[in-house]
Design a protein that fits this description.
The protein has 365 residues and is an alpha/beta fold. The protein folds into 2 domains: 208 residues, FAD/NAD(P)-binding domain; 114 residues, FAD/NAD(P)-binding domain, CATH 3.50.50. It has 7 helices and 17 strands. A hairpin with a 3-residue loop joins strand 5 and strand 6. The longest helix has 15 residues.
Length: 365
């Protein structure tokens, strides 16, 4: 078994100078500190501020860091209004917004709401108790009465845990296909990320092969992508091995076990797009426990979103643990309204129903 590979996150752009960014203010204090500057984290901060409380958003990376890591020109499944926060309209030239539309939109919302941001500042601990919390970061301490964790799930891949996974030509994040023209590329997975990557690689002149643990391409693949992929596989332009598992990765090959036995696939590059999960180690650092269910759901009250530590709340995808399709931008943004209302002593609005079925299978299954 290979050692767990280190993860190199996609490069990010320099932070925009027009945002209100506090690099280091010793002993600064706010009513609420939000950990995570993704869409749900930003929604939490603006909903808190609108109720007269002060808020600060802290993130180890850039503003909406996960979206920066998405593939170039990635198309969201949702229409614009379902991605909006704080009532700010999202404009796009497309029926469904692209990654670049979302990056611009959330930056403009943060600017318009004058959110206080402390970016590129990793949180390393949480001390104290409700009303007297101190969020400990690599750069200092931030006082808070309440803390909201909205850290998503995109930073920690579901590793294959096979020899060679840590080789430099293996990555768990796909950006764009152009570097792989006239190259053999193995894509591991059978859901949206893998499907889109295989199609783009084909059209950029690569020779992609999909390795799929399940007997078919997932039914959850976006409806405008799945038929395209199935037809390219039928034509033989995209290779596909089903009911197949990776055994090891070498500098030039991917060794797989198929129903017909062992097989060696040539590969100059490998995309192991096997899904992601919340950073459970980080949650434990904050003192958040997890339930013993299959999803390892972080302990929280489903009606209030308060964790096992009073005054410490969860928002967004992280609430579902390994059920990463349970909460997302479209319905997770309502967590912000619920938590903010509770902290301000208002009647909390009801949460929307879950819009997608819960899935616990790894994305490459």
């Amino acid at each position: 078994m290979g050692r767990e590979p280190s993860v190199s996150r996609p490069d990010v752009n320099p932070r925009p100078p027009e945002l209100v960014v506090q690099d280091m203010i010793p002993d600064s204090s706010f009513d609420v500190v939000v950990i995570g500057a993704g869409p749900v984290g930003l929604a939490c901060a603006l909903e808190v501020q609108r109720r007269g409380l002060t808020a600060c958003v802290v993130d180890k990376g850039a503003l909406v860091n996960s979206i920066i890591g998405y593939p170039t020109n990635m198309e969201f499944f949702s229409t614009p209004e379902l991605l909006e926060i704080g009532g700010h309209p999202m404009t796009t030239l497309h029926y469904k917004p692209l990654r670049e539309d979302a990056l611009d939109y959330y930056r403009r919302v943060a600017q318009a709401e004058k959110l206080t941001l402390r970016l590129y500042e990793r949180v390393v601990g949480l001390e104290g108790e409700q009303g007297r919390y101190e969020v400990v970061t690599e750069k200092g301490r931030i006082g808070a009465q309440f803390v909201i964790v909205a850290t998503g799930f995109y930073d920690v891949p579901n590793y294959l845990r096979v020899p060679g996974e840590d080789l430099p030509h293996v990555t768990h994040y796909y950006k764009e296909p152009y570097a792989h023209a006239d190259q053999d590329v193995v894509v591991i997975g059978a859901k949206n990320s893998s499907a889109k990557a295989a199609l783009q690689l084909l059209r950029a002149g690569a020779r992609p092969v999909l390795v799929v643990r399940s007997p078919e391409i997932s039914e959850s693949v976006k409806y405008w992508i799945r038929p395209d992929l199935l037809n390219r596989i039928k034509e033989g332009r995209i290779g596909a091995l089903f009911n197949t598992t990776v055994q090891r990765i070498t500098a030039t090959t991917v060794e797989v076990l198929t129903p017909d036995g062992l097989r060696s696939l040539p590969a100059q590059h490998v995309y192991a797009l096997t899904g992601y999960h919340p950073d459970f180690t980080f949650l434990a650092t904050l003192g958040i426990t997890c339930d013993t269910d299959a999803a390892q759901t972080p302990t929280h009250n489903a009606e209030t979103l308060e964790t096992n530590r009073p005054g410490l709340y969860l928002a967004g995808t992280v609430c579902g643990g390994l059920n990463t399709s349970r909460w997302f931008i479209e319905n997770g943004r309502y967590h912000a309204q619920l938590i903010a209302a509770r902290l301000a002593g208002e009647a909390a609005p009801p949460l929307p129903e879950v819009l997608q079925p819960v899935q616990l299978l790894p994305s490459h299954s």
